[in-house]
TrEMBL record:
Assigned keywords, A-Z: Membrane, Transmembrane, Transmembrane helix
Transmembrane residue ranges: 12-31, 37-59, 71-94
Protein name per its UniProtKB record: Uncharacterized protein
Amino acid sequence: MDKIKKSTHNKIYWILIVLSLIIGISIYGPLKDEFTLQFLLFFSGLPFFLFVIGSFGLLWPKIKPDGEEIYIKHALLIGILFIILFFIHVWIILPRICPDFGSCLGV
């Protein structure tokens, strides 16, 4: 029973990762000219969110805490994972969408 549950969860996490990549590639590839820059910037959070959920879900069995003494290590690992993914999103993906970020927001 536990093996079936784990397999199903892994499939769901992989589906979320693949879905985030499909959304990202389709919306920010051939369909990029169909949307405004403001929409593209704000919508970019959805594929990022799906990718973070999928990667966190796949890594959870490997990094979940076993006892009280390692909770700080666990929190640091999760924080490092999230900040790395966030920096990739902000410093690599968003500049490809809009090189002059301030003007794209209408500021």
